[in-house]
Amino acid sequence: MVDIVKRFPGVLANDGVSFDVRAGEVHALLGENGAGKSTLMRQLYGLYRPDSGQIIIDGQPRVFHSPSDAIKAGVGMIHQHFMLVSSLTVAENVALGLPSSRGARLDLDRVAERIRALAERYGLKVDPSAVVWQLSVGEQQRVEILKALYRGASLLVLDEPTAVLTPQEAEELFVTLRQMAADGHALIFISHKLHEVLALSNRVTVLRDGRMVGTYPTTEMTRADLARLMVGREVLLQYDRPPAKPGEERLKIDGLWTVGDRGTDAVRDFTLSVRAGEIVGLAGVSGNGQRELAEVLTGLRKPSKGAVTLNGKDVTHASPAERIAAGQCAIPEERMRTGVIKDFSVLENAILCDHGHAPYSHQTLLDFKTIAAHTQQLIADYAVKTPTADTPVKNLSGGNIQKLILARELCRKPTVVIAAQPTRGVDIGASEYIHHRLLEQRASGTATLLISEDLDEIRALSDRIAVIFEGRLMGVVDAATATAESLGLMMAGTRHAD
Ligand SMILES: Nc1ncnc2c1ncn2[C@@H]1O[C@H](COP(=O)(O)OP(=O)(O)OP(=O)(O)O)[C@@H](O)[C@H]1O
Ligand SMILES: [Mg+2]
């Protein structure tokens, strides 16, 4: 890609970016939220047209009018949000849109055969006859990769593929990607996790504010180097935390049970309390009931047994609005589905939940002057990168949407915060920022339940760490003395707290 320029209204997303990837190489693309990584890759995949600049593949200048042009040129892309048809099987999804070798009749058995061969070669465990909705996120990702390989992709773009994976699944993905590179594929890998970039890539290109910072051989880089190139300053992710001064019990979960989407118990007899001025981390491998627990605590899922008390008040069956009124706020795990309304503007999203009362509305009329001033304040306080307050939220980069949610929730001065994966997909500079904000809340006496699959995050922020396994509490340990090893054993369900 040579001298690529791409402008959106009010944003210069790519400002003369040049970038190349070779056969047999994993090239990492690194940069803060909004740096222009996805935009650059969407041009390579034919989703956007560059305003100027050239895309050259195998020595040949190319103009892509759509992804199908890019696919014909051997480019594949794995998006962060999968594009599979959930009611079809794996083989049907792979065959979708491709000509059949038997004319009008589908040759699914042949497709399945080839899928098996590809899956075998690259260690992608999936059953071609499985229906997609039954697959885990990691399995769906493998189907997306198989689909690209099946179409003959020799260059594969992976936009934050590990953001949705457990650490074990990420390891498996890396084995696959290394095998693909060894076979001569060219891979472009986007991630905010520096240790992944260091472990997997041969070269790394850093973008900042739409511009190239540079391309470097990975072996010459350290974590600190990369952080400095991305953010323009040192990022430590280590915090000075004054000792906790826990006050009264703010959130109490007592013998809680709930049923998951597949009809089995997702949370089983779970008991935990969080006091004022402390952060309790909930660690666990994804899929062990954390999501369902957070849904019960925010009023989105019904408990089948047990009780939840918020500031001394029974909220077991309370609605989300009643919990907000009682002083709780939540940072949801799925920001696009439950955190924002993506077609609404930044301004409209900034007052969600608060739109019905003063000072934002009077009787039935919204007070746009007050709302605009409030939104500008949030944008400034939380460094949300957006052209204007009227920009639809879907045009913001992932990390900036997360900052907006955090700004909206924390400005209510909650007494209890339920934070689920608060820094997923967020760059390290912004992660540090979010962590500081959570620690600020702690200092001001908020009770925080931090649900995260990132053990480093849990250990950096928590006063006590609770571990969940198969919906049950494995134990609660003091964060100061807990080792990664003992937490790992508890997360794997093989050991209880001492
Ligand atoms: N379709 C669009 N319309 C308007 N602006 C857009 C659009 N897509 C991206 N942008 C803007 O372009 C800039 C670059 O966004 P991009 O999504 O490429 O960032 P990114 O590096 O992928 O960030 P993240 O790490 O958060 O995913 C951002 O300021 C974003 O708001
Ligand atoms: Mg992106």
Describe this structure in words.
The protein is of the alpha/beta class. The chain has 2 domains: 2-231, P-loop containing nucleotide triphosphate hydrolases (Rossmann fold, 3-Layer(aba) Sandwich), CATH 3.40.50; 249-491, Rossmann fold. It is built from 17 helices and 22 strands. The protein has helices at 37-44, 67-72, 90-95, 108-122, 137-150, 167-182, 194-200, 223-231, 290-297, 320-325, 335-339, 346-350, 368-381, 398-410, 428-443, 455-461, 484-491; strands at 2-8, 11-17, 26-31, 52-57, 60-62, 75-78, 155-159, 186-190, 203-208, 211-217, 249-259, 265-275, 279-283, 303-310, 313-314, 328-331, 361-362, 365-366, 416-420, 447-452, 464-469, 472-478. The protein has a 6-stranded mixed β-sheet with strand order 6-7-8-3-9-10, sandwiched between helices. Bound molecules: adenosine-5'-triphosphate and magnesium ion (MG). Residues 37-38, 159, 397-398 line the site of magnesium ion (MG).
